């Protein structure tokens, strides 16, 4: 997580920089640039783009995108007969020589996006949260888990809109993909965050994103001077093969999932996972000293599970010629005794109504109550600059065990 210099800018300029960092389409950037210039891309707007976007783009920035944006920007200014800033021409000329448009075809499919959550003035001391995320240009890479899907943006907005729901809670996410939701949970100080996915390349990418945000697994994050340690753990968890025992030891207060309801073949397995975790009553979870045997078991399970994950990732890395940072094995636990059972919050774009109805049917058979919260709660729009994100398409559901 990083806070960049967006604070002193007015909303149109903040939106322009945020859209650039999130790699929104060049056409959309130009629309935002016109707003900044009162209808056209004036010389001062070009100067702003140079100072705050192009010249600030570090080596991690995807250069074919910069090249495309510059090309469109220069063409737009030239079409109005206005003066084009010399720096923009020079940079574009450099890219013409050094940057090929077919980088993607050469296998360079990962890019670094920065998602800026912009808080309303009266909402928070921190006015924004900028989350760098490595993701794929290919939507299908990592069984779809290497891209940022709209439901995880919405679920993140939900978490940041209602931090009190998640703060101090032990949270578990299924199908976490790039890990954005977990990063937001850490930001609002969930007591424990367990992310999971059934795809190893997504898990490897998720770990890298936790590193980028200084939230890696067992390194933890020391927040401010209060030294609150936030643990973000990655777990290899294919729904089909997850054992009842490994699901039972997680014992979260809250379960999350974004864009995980789309494959009818996976739905019964997903429901099985949800129902095992949701049906855990926490009456039997106590403070660690009263339950040292259970804690001991859980610690052993965590270590074994971590070793298994590391083994899978090592195999995956060696197969793919990658090297990933491995973390130490420390595990810290925070038990939250809760009288009620856990609740799941699932965000979803309903792309196929039959698939979604099938999800509802299987959920009902498993004694799960699914409630549509979409119209009942007001989630803050923290990504107003993101044209590619159609938040109205995303529904939010709560799910609880009623058996
Ligand atoms: C559409 S992506 C959503 C990723 C992320 N939650 C987001 O919204 O950006 C679906 C995710 O679910 C994971 N997934 C799909 N089927 C799964 C299964 N059977 N077991 C575990 N994870 C699965 C995929 O690997 C992928 O990360």
Automatic annotation (TrEMBL):
SUPFAM superfamilies: S-adenosyl-L-methionine-dependent methyltransferases. It holds the Pfam family Methyltransf_16. Gene3D superfamilies: Vaccinia Virus protein VP39. InterPro entries: Methyltransf_16, SAM-dependent_MTases_sf. It comes from the Eukaryota. PANTHER family: HEPATOCELLULAR CARCINOMA-ASSOCIATED ANTIGEN (PTHR14614), PROTEIN-LYSINE N-METHYLTRANSFERASE EEF2KMT (PTHR14614:SF130). This is FAM86 N-terminal domain-containing protein. It comes from Daucus carota subsp. sativus.
